[in-house]
Amino acid sequence: MAETYLYPDSTVSGTWSVVGAATIHQAIDDPSGADDDDTTYAQGSGAAWVDQIVGFAPMTDAVEITAVEVQVRYNNAGGGANQELDYGVVIGGVSYLNGSIAVNSAVYANDTLPLPTNPATGGLWTKPQLDAVQGIIRTQDAAGKPVDSVRVTSLRLKVTYQPLSADIVVVRGEASARLRRYGQEIPQAVIDGTPELLDNELMDNVGLTHPAAPWADEEEQRLHQVRVIDFDPNTLATSATLWDQRRYLCTALDTARTARGTSADEQGVARLSAGGVFSVARASDIWVQDCQSRLVVQLGTHARGYDFAGTLTDAAATRYGAALIEPAATNLLAYSSAVEGSGAIGLGKIVATGASGTFAEEASPPQALFDSSVSGFAYKFTAGSPHSADKRATWPTTASQPANTLVRVSIDHANTGTVSGDRLTWRLRRMVNGDYWDDAANGWTATPTENPLTLAATRTRAKSKRINVGGSSTTLLFSIAQLSGGTAARIDRVYHAQLEDLAYMTSRIVTGAATYTRASQLDSWTNLSGSRSINATVFTALFHGITPWDAADVAALAAPVKVFDETYDASNWIRFYYDGTNLTLSIRASGVTTLATKAWTAVAGTYVYLGARATSAAGELGLVRTHDVFLQGVKGTSATRAADPTETTSPLYVGCDSSGNQWGGHLFEREFVQVALTDEEIAAEAA
Question: Which one of 194, 240, 372, 579 is CB 3.0 to 4.6 Å from 376, fit for a cystine?
Answer without folding.
Answer: 372
